Amino acid sequence: MASMFKKAGSFLGGNEDETKKQDEEGESLTTVLETDEDRSALTILVSNITELMRKQVVDTFDPKLTGSQDDQLTDDNGEPINLEKLGEDERSKELQKLLEKQKAELTKLEKEVSEEKMVALKTSALGFFDDWRDSIVLRIGEIVNSRKTAENQSKQAKPELVRQDTEPALEGIEKNEHEDIIAETLLKLYAPVETPLRGLAKEKRVLILHSVFLLTLSLEHYNAHSRTLLLYLTTSLGLSATVLSEDEKKVARGLLDAAEKMSAEEETKKRAEENRTSRRWKMGVAGVAGAALIGITGGLAAPFLAAGVGTVLGGIGLGATATAGYLGALAGSGVLVGGLFGAYGAKMTSKAMEQYTRDVEDFAFVPIQKLGESETEARRLRVAIGISGWLGDKDEVVKPWKCIGSGQETFALRFELEALMNLGNALTTLVTSAAWSYAKSEIIKRTVFAALSAGLWPLGLLKASHIIDNPWSIANQRAQKAGEVLADALINKAQGERPVTLVGYSLGAKVIYVCLQQLAERKAFGLIENAIMLGAPTPSNSADWRRIRSVVTGRVVNAYSTNDYILAFLYRSSSIQFGVAGLNSVVNVKGVENIEVGDLVKGHTLYRHATAPILKRIGFEDIDLQEIGHEEQKLAEQEKKEEEQREAAENGAKESGVTSQSAVADEEVHKMEQEVEQKNKSS
Q1: Mean pLDDT of 231-260
Q2: Does any domain span residue 618?
Q3: What is the distance between the alpha carbons of residues 21 and 19, in angstroms, rounded to a whole number?
Q4: Using alpha carbons only, what angle is made at residue 217 by residues 213 and 223, rounded to the nearest 5 degrees?
Q5: Which residues does residue 501 pair with via DSSP β-bridges, in sequence order?
Q6: How many Cβ atoms sit within 10 Å of the Cβ of residue 353?
Q7: Mean pLDDT value across residues 37-65
Q8: With helix as H, strand as E and coil as C, how does 327-370 read?
Q9: What's the total number of domains in the chain?
């Protein structure tokens, strides 16, 4: 690697021959940053951004920084109290209660973050971050300045955010309405840091971003921290996230194209064949391990790879030699490129999975490719994994995740197909029954939490409860195990050295929740960029979500619906004192985004089609607008269909003589049992 650094350092020379060489070979950072002030400005900007990122890690464990604090006064049934309707004495009394409640909450949170395990987690998170920050600041510093200068500038970092009223318009491709939402969301999440580099021409700012991107890859990984740094750099330079996303695609293609050429050599083919079995991950990671078609080359083809990468990527203005220099050892090793994309990083074996195999019979990553796109063309430098929480048919393992756009390489996680199909059959039967129709008319008179905490469930619904309780219990247990297996897969780099975004609804969100808890337990940082959980049947207590926040570098989103009486009913036997993430906000943890989606999700079964509209609402960075339109239409159709089926069941029950809202005939429960059994057989 030292030789690569020397090559990169040659761009810093000042004689005429070197200047002529630079002109011939294209731009480099030192030709774009013409003055010492500009070069220092870049190192300072990166140092300021990383200091801001470090503060966010610290803030996660600060009990006083609670994000959106829940300060609303409520009565014993959880109903809000309107202070304006109270007399002066009552108002004063209620405000005093609120103050005491806040003090008690703060005391509890202070105790929570001071517990030994939480302190150890914070120490580990900061240790991992500091090691990454040192490597990235010094790598950039040795290219544009000296190592010593970079170290000094890093110590003096004092980030200053751009004032809201002076934010520059982000530059990129022509935007549509959704891209405006994305831009607005990213500006809020990755607020621009003040820098004089924003005054440079757009072409120069794009080249700065591209160069820093290559330098992050020279660390031989592209972890979630590196990706977050580049998002901050993008907004700070006044560029659109589209610029970064397109750059990621080009670099992925360039690396793979160059590496594939090497794999054509006979020696490479021979060794790849000999080692194929030992490299393959045996848990059904369809298309992940080995799919890059990269052979083991050692250093034999290093000059060829370096030249190939430079040629492919040089088209955007950066010189071929500069490109290879900035990539460091990565530009000379097919093995390292393979590891980056997961060709050799998937170390999971059957032996490692033995402890879970008994409980998780079916576990696989299923690639989701765009129409007309080959497996190799689908490779990206970021990974998205979508997880369905119950299934109406087998295709629903994949269908909900086609809405994820082309910026990421997308997989659907398939686990316990039979259990999720049985749960889907039971759910759809229950929610379209007269039992549920009658029950909902009673429950809806109260808040969902009043019904949940008081156990106020109609007798007729309880009669039918065994139809859903058993499949829910089985699938819930399997989701727990699947989350543990997923954590193992990620820690063992099944995804390579790329940042992962996890998205899931219902028990799919439970899988993510368990996975992130496991990652925190095992101090596995830098793997997860975003975690988006929809209708999660999990606790919402601050301790669990603080751990989750510590292992996710980007966004943690909790989408919930206060109209989800089905989830409340399913959760009735669980520990409700810890709250339910799918029914309410997660409070007292800074950095968790809570999104109420009750207008889209009138019931738990609608999450399957509401996934794409919810991702659109939160300003999800990579999304297929055509698929969103399709899913929005399906959501409306599904809601209408369920309502019609409920009405038909209710009319049928009335014809059978069942008119009371507090009772459902045993005959209807028997019919529901038969319907579920028939559906399971068909599945």
Answers
A1: 90
A2: yes
A3: 5
A4: 95
A5: 384, 530
A6: 17
A7: 93
A8: HHHHHHCHHHHHHHHCCCCCCCCHHHHHHHHCCCCCEEEEEECC
A9: 1
Helix or strand run (H / E) with residue 672: helix 666-682
| Per-residue pLDDT, 179 | 76
Contacts of 543 (CB under 8 A, 6+ apart): 112, 118
In angstroms and rounded to an integer, the radius of gyration of the C-alpha atoms of the chain is: 27
Cβ distance 245 to 213 under 8 Å?
Answer: no
Structure tokens of 325?
């220099």
Kind plus residue range of the DSSP H or E element containing 534: strand 528-534
Distance CA 3, CA 325 (A): 9
> Does the CA dihedral 194-198-204-206 come out positive or negative?
positive
- Residue 79, domain member (yes or no): no
Q: Are 373 and 359 in contact (CB under 8 A)?
A: no
Comparing CA positions, the residue from 369, 382, 412 lying closest to residue 620 is: 382
Q: For residues 174-194, b (16+ Cβ closer than 10 Å) or e, as one string?
A: eeeeebebbbebbbebbbbbe
List phi, psi (to 5°) of 562.
-75, -5
Q: What is the mean pLDDT of residues 298-314?
A: 54
Higher pLDDT, 60 or 32: 60
Three-class SS state of 493: coil
* Tens digit of each residue's pLDDT (9 = 90 or more) over 126-137: 999 999 999 999
- What's residue 14's pLDDT? 42
Least confidently predicted of 166-175, 478-487, 558-567, 618-627: 166-175
d(CA 48, CA 34): 21
Which one is predicted more confidently, 468 or 3? 468
- 347 falls within a domain: no
- Contact between 620 and 559 under an 8 Å Cβ cutoff? The reply is no
What domain range is 490 assigned to? 354-682
Q: Residue count of the chain, please give it.
A: 683
**Who contacts 139 (Cβ-Cβ below 8 Å, separation ≥6)?**
215, 216, 218, 219
For residue 286, what are the contacts with CB-CB under 8 A and spacing of at least 6?
A: 364, 365, 366, 367, 411
For residue 475, give the H/E element and its range: helix 459-491
Is there a domain that residue 455 lies in?
Answer: yes
> For the residues 442-463, what does the mean pLDDT come to?
71
Residue 622, Cα to own-chain centre: how many angstroms? 11
Q: What is the token pair recorded at 245? A: 């996303």
Coil, helix or strand at residue 559: strand
Q: Which residues of 120-150 are buried (b: 16+ CB within 10 A; e: fewer)?
A: ebbebbbebbeebbeebbbbbbbbbbeeebb
Q: Are 612 and 403 in contact (CB under 8 A)?
A: yes
Determine the Cα–Cα distance for residues 199 and 318; give it in Å rounded to an integer.
20
Phi-psi region of 387 (alpha: psi -120 to 50; beta: other; left: phi over 0): beta
Say which amino acid occupies 72: Q
Tokens of 182: 């994305």
Nearest to 660 by CA among 670, 646, 650, 669: 650
Contact call for residues 617 and 581 (beta carbons, < 8 A): no
